[in-house]
Records
---
Amino acid sequence: MTATQRKEIDLAFASDHELHKRVNAAITQNPDLSSLFGDVVTHFRKQDSQPTNTSFEAEDDEFGASFDDEADFLAATEAVENGKRPRDEDDGALSLSKRAKTNASRSVALSNRILKERFGLNGFRLKQEAAITRILDGGSAVIVFPTGGGKSLCYQVPAVAFRYQDEAIGSRNGQMSGITLVVSPLIALMKDQVDGLLRRGIKAAVLNSSLSRDKYLATQQDLRQGHLDLLYCAPERLNNEGFVASLKAIPGGIRLLAVDEAHCISEWGHSFRPDYLKIARFAKEASVERVACLTATATPKVARDICSAFSIPTEGLFTTTVYRPNLRLLAQSNPKQADNVSKLVGFLRQNPGPTIVYTTLQKGAEELAEELKSRNFSAKAFHAGMDTDVKMRTQDAFFASDNMIVVATIAFGMGIDKPNIRNIVHFDIPDSIESCSQQVGRAGRDGLSSVCLFNLSTKDFYLRNIFTYGDRPSRRSLKLLMEDICSKERKRLKVGETFAISEYHQSRDTDIKSTMLSIIYAQLELHYGFIRAAGSKYTEYKYKTDNPDAISRDRDRAAQAILRGSNKKKLWTYVPIEIIEKSSGLTREELVRKIDEWNERGMITVQATGVQQVYRLEKFLPATKQEIDLIVKQLDKTMETQEKQNLDRTKALINLITDKKCFSRALATYFGETSDRISEECGHCTWCETHQQVLLPNEPPQPPNTALVKRILDEVSARDDPRYLAKIAFGIKSPRMAQEGIYRKAVFESMNVCDFEDLLKSFTKECFM
Ligand SMILES: Nc1ncnc2c1ncn2[C@@H]1O[C@H](COP(=O)(O)OP(=O)(O)OP(=O)(O)O)[C@@H](O)[C@H]1O
């Protein structure tokens, strides 16, 4: 591994923590936390600038359609209903059986009309109409359409239709039509969607970290008054008790819960997210009427998981083929690393047109973009580590161009709906068939011939393994974590009481990556039922002011307590909120409200830091050593399974590419297609074109070197964690290594040509002999 790659992996690990911090901050950003903790959290982060050139916005002609003739529309639907108006429900909510009475042909007419008049489109695609009809008739649906297949309309059309349905049936008044809640992890895309909907006169809003406090409060008011048809939020927000309470109070309730990227709910999926598991629980608790789960990639197993999580019967599953006859799926193997770039250059010269080249590492994307530029290609890098402005400019330029190449990590692509992408190149191996298929799906949306090239080399395995093995915590780490969670003072807590944890500190102290900590906490919550996430809070506030006199003139008790208890440094004044809380006898709520008030009046600029996750105790934590050990053992087993799944996913992709079979057919089979539409051989993949097997270069791992093992043991005193020692040898960073200064030692990454499992065996022997 080169020094650059090493640095890049460091960056990826560092940004993992950064990402985590940002997710925490996003959750806490909700000023309504005051209802829970009394924190009127003040935030002055730069608002994320959002992508502007998205598919909706690009299609200006679609916005011309007006929907002023609502009365006419209602008359039409009422005519169908003629004489069948049930009496008004007291609380405006219908029982499921009554809702299901809405008949299908009326739903079809309604949805087609909305499609035309609101969205300016002439007809439905794929199985959109069938899915929407089911939803309008009261059923839930799992919708598996390819990227760009038009999944959004499957919940947007019903979201608009509910109001008309209600009016037609006469079941609810306009304020009681409830809402469609859209849960999506793609915060940047939510705003685009909402802007597009607003331009069509559809009442939509987003609640995320980019909202100003005023906008946030206005949205809350709209929600309370039943003014909104759609609300978008991130899954993490459902951890916030205050937010969930406000959703439960929406007049008319949640008519439809749309879960975007629904494959994240499955532990078999390629991007499992623990917060997704909580969505199904939320759906039950908030008495959501029906659910629409949307994804572009779901194997039959993942689709089953989604269906079972939301109790959706098989007739609610709407899938379409992943086979794309206009895509040439090519693969090549490069035994010589140096050939990679020259072969790519040859390919790009032969296949001009807008192209995305995917790399694993950010640095790799930058270097390759430079390399291509030096060879006169119009190339730019794109990855999550770049400034938002730069990323937006690159995205806009790509949309407008007919020859640009974007060299990108997976950060590029979500929501990219450019019809004429001619090539997708996988310069490095993606993590799974699902990711690969999603990325390939971005090519040739205009139906014209496009090429997808897959580059195979063994070094990619090494990189992938670093991510996979780096995730799994050791037994020692799990034990430390459980002992910390079940500390003496927590064992004294009563059920219903809360406690706070800093994941940042816990990650450092237990040597567990913060992403994995989230998964473990989700296990403790959902599987064991010990705790329940209740939001997050800040522990430290600091402020600066140009007008200290104005503050000191504030005679309010909270103001005086803050002034007395704070520590003034050069620029910032630090407010140790918990200490002041104790010394003043005031509540946290009162103190934070005062800080917020100063800020809102422009008297100070505030920054809140030290985010902590808050959990409510649901039942007593394990008390004995045996109980803790048992949970550690079970968690370790779960982690082992996850690690194996991740390794298997990459292997499955390699097997698919290196098999003596048609790639297109193998891909479709993987996603459960039995369709006869694809013949034995597609005629447009490497296998079909050449009947030559693409082979992975034969570079087997080397056995652990006894002298190097001894050297690590000489230089590192730890004997409590063989996985830790194996990570040092393999070159996987971890919080404990940073503390122990391991990276500076020559032994770090000294055996990166070995198999990680072999290293683990060697060090296990040394530690437990
Ligand atoms: N029935 C239709 N007729 C014409 N255009 C449509 C239709 N349905 C969707 N579209 C358009 O297709 C594009 C992609 O739709 P959408 O963003 O909903 O796809 P998606 O399946 O959610 O994709 P992704 O997986 O990338 O999020 C949009 O520009 C949308 O307006």
Note: Confidence is low (pLDDT under 50) at residues 1-102.
---
Amino acid sequence: MKFAVIVFPGSNCDADMYHAISDALGAEAEYVWHHETSLQGFDGILLPGGFSHGDYLRSGAIARFAPIMKAVIEAAKEGKPVLGVCNGFQILLEAGLLPGAMKRNEGLKFICRPAVLTVENEKTMFTAGYEKGQEITIPVAHGEGNYECDDATFNELEKNGQIIFRYQDNINGSRHQIAGIMNEAGNVLGMMPHPERAVEALLGSDDGLALFQSIVRNWRETHVATT
Ligand SMILES: NC(=O)CC[C@H](N)C(=O)O
């Protein structure tokens, strides 16, 4: 399985994502610059964290117009796994691949620390390696992670099992402590915490590794014929 790590001007977690995929997970990864227009040959798409275009206007608001985003939307429509972490999540929201929006953190401070998350839905291609209700420790690092959506959207997310991760403590003011959501089709996940920074014990936690392993396992089950 081959992953694309999309790089925007201002991305700063692209190398962490690349390391998580190629060294911790042992899969193939390649950087793809935002000016590219094709994602042919890639099986999974990763939008890493950072400050694309300096977070000007709103985080992700400029990046979503990057030439590569047409290909990201196309890949999402084709059912390929698309994971947006932190700024990647913000870009997915701005691109309309996920519902809702991000506000500045309650308290208006940048938060950078490990956070305990609860796995709300383990029946997805991203979370099959976890158990329902499992508590995992994944670092957060954001200033604009206060997830907001209207009542109708929230009810839909809840009803369809699209809320994937919740913060144990409401660290940033997010509606119902939402830390990560998925699209209805189940192949696009956005999350503010950084699983790529929690893939080996040396980093303080390896709780993020199962997320990447789940994606690969699902891909193998659906794409690799067994005899
Ligand atoms: N680590 C990141 O991706 C930072 C996300 C974003 N630019 C924010 O501060 O909200």
Note: The chain is about 25% helix and 25% strand.
---
Amino acid sequence: MHQVERAIFDLRRGLPVLIGEASAPLLVQPVEGAADTAVATLADRAGSPPALVLSRHRLAWLGHPRATPALLALPPGLEGERLAAVAFGAEPELGVWADALVDADPAERAALALMRRALLIPAALVARVAPARRDAVAAEVADGTLLEVPAEAAARCQETHGLLKRISEARIPLEDAFDSRFILFREPDGLREHVAVVIGEPQAAAGPVPLRLHSACLTGDLFGSLRCDCGEQLRNAVAEIEALGGGVLLYLAQEGRGIGLANKLRAYTRQDAGLDTLDADHSLGFAEDERRYAVAVDMLASLGIHRVQLLTNNPRKVAALTAGGIEVVSRQALYGTLNDHNRRYLSAKAERAGHLLEGVLNGKATRR
Ligand SMILES: Nc1nc2c(ncn2[C@@H]2O[C@H](COP(=O)(O)OP(=O)(O)OP(=O)(O)O)[C@@H](O)[C@H]2O)c(=O)[nH]1
Ligand SMILES: [Zn+2]
């Protein structure tokens, strides 16, 4: 993991990293934030022409559905804003180049995994290091100018199971749950921290523990954004867990369904231009839901919780915990309030992502 963590920082600064493969090392650079000369510079460094790796969600949105991410050979002069437009623009010009798409190989797919892990747009410039440039690139790795990540480590960079560290805790009395304790966990890349809010003294022996998995939403949780129902769900969950006699709320650093705040704001702008919540994410290259719940499973293990009563409308959360070995004894709905701003968002979640929201969409909401 160590090299991956360092690579994430270089990528977030817009620098290339090397995905190491004995036969054909691959230079990789994010498209997001790339300088106007990025393609030319990368070509010089690698001694071969760079190509663009696009995710299958982006390709499907562009009208080229495929089973895997694909590589697009770059026509001469495609740089800067035009490159960004092809990679993640709202009005892309893919045109005739689409004929040149080929399936991405494992190292090229790993390049996209690194972008996602770094919370960048999942589109990458990649260039194979030509034999004539191998010694020069190896020298850059040796002197620390360029970071090398083994291909398998890059491919697994989103797997964090067992790597979460329990860091610190404190008693935090809440308005709706006086007897609460916050326990902070940190992922190895240092980018993401998750908090377990333990309300009361849930006794695992006494039966399933009331549990809420809440994905961070800065706009909704903190500012009461009307575009979603997150803030209300958060506060309702705390009150509900308290009313159930105590339990746990995991506050997970999965802003924007795992795409990060920067990308969620981009997605909101696309929604204002007419896309729904899922298509907006696809247009940026993301899946409809990028969240992974291994961190939640690890936090529950650390808290000694194996059987839960889950407060959610999202069947994926039930499935993810079950797959992680947690017994979900029952599911309880948890609603916010419908308004003119979040109606389209909630309808799309129900109709296209299988969320169980009849209670709120038919007007019967809301608890509290
Ligand atoms: N990408 C994206 N994320 C959004 C949008 N609106 C809200 N979110 C994020 O969606 C997540 C909502 O999380 P949750 O409330 O935990 O989950 P949920 O999947 O709706 O499921 P339950 O509330 O448990 O039924 C948060 O991370 C929000 O930041 C949007 O339009 N686009
Ligand atoms: Zn929200």
Note: The mean pLDDT is 91.
---
Amino acid sequence: MALLETHEIEVFYGDFQAVFGIDVSVEEGETVAIIGANGAGKSSFLNALAGITPSKPDAITLDGKPVGGTPAYEMVKKGIALVPEGRKLYPSLTVEENLLIGADGKTVDRGWNLDEIYRLFPILKERAKQMSTTLSGGQQQQVSIGRALMANPKVLLCDEISLGLAPTIVKDVYAAVKEIQARGTTVLLVEQDLSAALGAADRVYCFMEGRVTLTGRPDELTKDQIQHAYFGMSDA
Ligand SMILES: Nc1ncnc2c1ncn2[C@@H]1O[C@H](COP(=O)(O)OP(=O)(O)OP(=O)(O)O)[C@@H](O)[C@H]1O
């Protein structure tokens, strides 16, 4: 049994359907990436897992138990924590205060605390008392990841953590994802930066127009397969 599974999950905004019956499974300790173009439904899917958009109870199982439709503040206590698109830090709080807020979602100790976050992201220790808004984009992304880890999740959800960052900074952020996985945390990420996603993930799912068009291990997939799955076209 996989740690996290979706079963024919659907996401609606009023009458508009963004996700059409998607099955995804994530094994404990895996890093899985969802790739796809703008509007493919990646964030809608991730937000359903985080309890931000509604879903049916059986549509999401964690450790085999239905958790779909659980509100976001409860979902994090069940073990699913989100690094949201755009970081969404609290601008009036310091770096450390932002991190400490993440600990409100902690119900089990899986080894993540302030010391461990500062070990993963040493610059944040130096900047601990600064307002989060004074940090660079990459450092703010570190705070957002650290805040989610402070909840000690079973599964860390990351939404477009490369967004707006220079390529060298993206590399650093993804090196941290590898480290997070190495420390035993399961990661499910949504990413438009293909090389970042393929470099970090054990398995990928490609979404197009709210459906899965391709799945596999990065080393098994060809460029043409990915292009076809991404845009519905190929070189041929
Ligand atoms: N709050 C909302 N209300 C109505 N429609 C929405 C809402 N959020 C997303 N959508 C629509 O749902 C579809 C999927 O959007 P979603 O943001 O999930 O895609 P995405 O793959 O994450 O793309 P992006 O990378 O641009 O965020 C799009 O057609 C989008 O316009």
Note: Residues 167-182 form the longest helix (16 residues).
